Amino acid sequence: MEVSEVEKEEEDRLLNIKKIGNKCPASVIVLLIVKWLDSITFSGTHGFLVLYFLSKFIYFNNNEIYLHQVFTGLVIILTFVGATITDSWLGKFNAFIGSNIFLLFSHVLVIIKEVKSEDTKKSQFSMVLAIFFLALATGIKTPSIFCLAGDQFPEYQVMERNKIFCFLYLSTVFEKFFANILIPLMMGNSCAYKNCYLIYFSTSAGILTFNLGTFIYFRKLFFREHPKGSKLLKILKCILTAIKNHLRHYSWKTPRRDHWLDWASEKFSENHLNEVKVFFRMLLFLLPFPFLWALAEKQTSEWILQSKKMNYSVNGYPVDNEDIQLFFNTALLISLIVVEVVLIPLAEGLQIHFSLIKKMIIGMSFIYFSSLMTFLLELHIENSPRMMPGSRESFVHILNVADTSFQVNFINGHFFYSKMAEAFEEVRNYERIYLDADQQYFHVYINTETFFKGKKILLEEKMTYIVILSGRRPVYSITMVKETTTKPDKGVANVRIMNLLDKDVYIVMSADTYNLTKYKGISSELTIRINRNINLLCVIEKKEHVLELGLLQFGSSYIVLLLKDTPVLTTWKTKKLEIKPLSIEWQLPQFLIMEIGKYLVIFSGMEFFYYEAPKGMKVTMQALWTSTLSSSSLILYSVNYTTSLPKWLEYFLLSTILLALIISCFIIGYCYQEPVLNF
Question: How far apart are CA 634 and CA 68, in angstroms?
Answer without folding.
Answer: 10
